[in-house]
Amino acid sequence: MNKTLLVFLTISGLIPIRPVNAADSSAATPNPANIRVVNCDEPVKSKKRGICANRLSAADFKSLAPGVSWFYNWHYKTDFVPPSGTNIEFLPMAWGNRNEDFSGLKSYLSSVSKKPSYVLALNEPNLKGQAFINPEATASAYRKIKEVADQFNIPVVGPHMAIGSPDKDSIKAMDPIENKTLTYTFMMPFLKAFNFYMKDTDIPATAVHSYGDIGELKWATKSLHDEFKKPVWVTEYAFWKANGVQGAVDYLIQATDFLERSPYVQGYAWFKERAKDNPKISLLDPNSSELTPLGKAYVSLPPHDADLHYRIPGRLQAENYVTFAGDDFEIKQTNDSEGGNFQMISNRANATIDYNIQVDQAGTYTLNFRAAGWPGKIEILSGDQVIGSVTTTDKKWNNVQTQVQLSAGPQTLRLRFSTSMQFVNWIEFSK
Questions:
Q1: Average pLDDT for consecutive 10-residue bins of the chain (431 residues)?
Q2: Domains 6-28+45-300 and 308-430 in one fold
Q3: What kind of fold does domain 308-430 have according to CATH?
Q4: Which long-range contacts (CB under 8 A, 24 or more apart) does 331-340 make?
Q5: Which residue, 1, 16, 98, 152, has fewest beta-carbon neighbours within 10 Å?
Q6: HEC profile for the chain?
Q7: Domain range list for the chain
Q8: Cα 416-218-242 angle, rounded to 5 deg
């Protein structure tokens, strides 16, 4: 798929990051009937995580399956079927305002026994070289796609927007809100006009593509949610100008963790399986089905579902949190050789992060933290009560321990860090 990078790079890096406020989960008592319990060392696949791909082999699917739940190919059908047991769903896309998109989508949906969870609609209508239709035509096409999907009771997600574009690559039209001809160089006026033409037709979610830095991604998704009060999908994302493979990995980890923990983000897909014109952002090796360093990180990042609880005793990786507020923490690849892929780093004094655990037997538990960073305390709270603490004293990785009393059942423990730049790799619970 040809990308016009200027669309994204004109905005990238110039947009301020606004924090995402997570709900305070420490006060809530989970209902055991509404939770999932897994062992501490059990990998859990993200329900949100997808991939956009032109070609996937059976071996490719097997490599991606531990962390990826869905894929799409910018088309209404696929010739690449995931092998049995991989549990990766294909989501069809009606790419543009073409009769073949509508008839092809209907034919595909009629032909498959298991219907897709969603239909994706209209790829970058605001960008030359892509669907490139004005807001009124986009609304008309969306309705036609919805008419097809409604026959099978499938929600339609779209349109899938480029954030912005230079004048020469932007669609022009009479804007129904401004009552004048606009060149839609930014997605928001286009989407407002699209919504105007949609009138009372329900639009379940908005969607966006981002190829800038983490600031652009955070701003774009938050802005869409704030403006339209709908779930957001990010159906193409990567940092096109990342500084080499390691820069791309660093971005992928930060971006994917952000999308995973953001409650208003319903789905996301990395671009892409193999990017021939920018191989540093590929998830798969160009000559095999081996995961690249990016692919390994993408597959291994955990979900942050509120219903997910980890059974103790066991070693809980620090990245297996459920929530934290704002930008209190940052996730990075760990530099510790004592196990684990990622580490969590506090960004301010009194930053808090929550972990859901399942305690089968009440009693005294030893908590062994693999920690480093600036000297300071890490307090363990149950509700508002401090039940234990450890102290980090060295920038080198060390094991520090405390004992706590835990009641039986599902519960949330909160960690409170006394200073910034405290690192945790994992927490081991033993009884």
A1: 38 32 42 87 96 97 98 97 95 97 98 97 98 98 98 98 97 97 98 96 96 98 98 98 98 98 98 97 97 98 98 98 96 94 98 98 98 96 97 93 97 98 98 91
A2: no
A3: Jelly Rolls (2.60.120)
A4: 331/253, 331/254, 331/257, 332/250, 332/253, 333/249, 333/250, 333/253, 333/297, 334/425, 336/370, 336/372, 336/397, 336/425, 338/370, 338/397, 338/425, 339/315, 339/370, 339/425, 339/426, 340/370, 340/425, 340/426
A5: 16
A6: CCCCCHHHHCCCCCCCCCCCCCCCCCCCCCCHHHCEEEECCCCCCCCCEEEECCCCCHHHHHHHCCCCCEEECCCCCCCCCCCCCCCCEECCEECCCCHHHHHHHHHHHHHCCCCCCCEEECECCCECCCCCCCHHHHHHHHHHHHHHHHCCCCCEECCEEECECCHHHECEEEECCCCEEEECCEHHHHHHHHHHHHCCCCCCCEEEEECCCHHHHHHHHHHHHHHHCCCEEEEEECCCCCCHHHHHHHHHHHHHHHHHHCCCEEEEEEECCCCCCCHHHCCECCCCCCECHHHHHHHHCCCCCCCEEEEECEEEECCCCCEECCCCEEEEECCCCCCCCEEEEECCCCEEEEEEEEECCCEEEEEEEEEEECCEEEEEEECCEEEEEEEECCCCCEEEEEEEEECCEEEEEEEEECCCCEEEEEEEEEC
A7: 6-28+45-300, 308-430
A8: 105
Structure tokens, 261: 């923990």
Return the structure tokens found at 98.
């073409």
Q: Which amino acid is at 145?
A: I
Q: Locate tokens 């060149």: which residue? A: 183
Q: How is residue 31 written in tokens?
A: 């209902």
